[in-house]
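User: I'm preparing a small set of examples for a lab meeting where we compare how different chains pack in three dimensions. I only have the primary sequence for this one, and I'd like the structure in token form so I can line it up with the others. Please keep the answer compact; I'll paste it straight into my notes.
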Amino acid sequence: MIDFSFTEEQQLFRKAIHEWCEKRLNLEAVRKMDKTGKMPDGLVKEMADLGLLIMTAPEEHGGTGADWITTCIAAEELGYADISCAVPVFWLVQSSWGYVVDKYASEEVRNAVIRPAIKGNAFIGIGTTESGGGSDVAGFKSTGKKMGNEWIINGEKMYISGTEEVQKMGGGYWITVRTAPAPPGAPHKGLTGFYMPINAPGVEVTKRFDDVGRMGISTGGFAMKNVKLPDNHRLGKEGEGFYPTMEGFDGARLLIAAVCVGAVQRVLEIGMDYIKQRKAFGQPIGKFEGIQFELADDWAELEAMRSLVYRTAWMMDEKYKHNKFTSLEVTKYIAATKLKVPPFAMHAAEHAMIWMGAYGYSQECPIDMAWRGIMSYCIGAEGALNIQRIVIGRELLGKEFIPYK
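Assistant: Understood. Below is the structure token output for the 405-residue chain.
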């Protein structure tokens, strides 16, 4: 029989995170963060004390060695608390990209950034997107040239999360650059991953973008002009950086979906409280089928999405622990979570706003923060929605049906 229950340890973990979030990330605190553009003072250190930062790293490297199901529990609870998605973004890029940096890093890099980031003393993020686009990883223009035991990096990255936080905290980014020409028919070859400290000579943070949502974390870009990185900053094998980059995207996409599950749960609870109290024509508007049926559909969809997320997290754990599934099998399901959950979450927030009428369109109501924050996941954070469709189609039909080949 299939067992859908969480372990006692996981249930206690969820309870602890939920109680902490109620104190530190209530809706009032989230609205303040949304208006000021800053996370609450001391929040990052408290997350570190709770073991939340890069919790996917093994214990021998300073993490808690959390599996992906437990990590999705944290994602769901953070999404439920901070429906603006700012703190979840700060957290999930480290839980996913910190995981692959730690997995492929030298001990020097691990000591320089992973161990400090786990303690809340550094930030490690993902810096792949370029001005020409982000989903076409094989088309990146940034370059790396090896000179002795060093690499000379040139290029520019754009729409990168945490560019202001990393300057304050220290740390850096996983970057993927082209280090060799792509052979015919294999554009994904010749890419290499690196850890690039933000304070490396030649790195310049170029600008901040004023995002529509998730205001509590910055988004910016940085230029790399003849940046010298030692070879021990290389992540994985030379010329094969495409694969660990995709591994990082897989982890991030799964956690994005889990965050959205939590945000929808909170949005529907806020909406239900309202439609049970607001009256029209002498009765609560929740009695009207136009609203009640939409709520019922959203709740049913949420339960389906939650099941998909945790089933996929289980597959991820089985892949890493027991090689039960291939990477491509898991990637197909991860693409499904990224394809389905964020758009549903955005529409569920939209539904609740409409139930609330003028109040829902005001900032007296918190749901606008969810609507704006979740939109970033629909637009392209960690891969555009149509990329997920291409991934799924490739796995269903075969590689010969990839449209760009």
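A couple of notes for your slides: The first helix runs from residue 8 to 24. The domain at 242-401 is CATH 1.20.140.10 (Butyryl-CoA Dehydrogenase, subunit A; domain 3).

User: Perfect, thanks.
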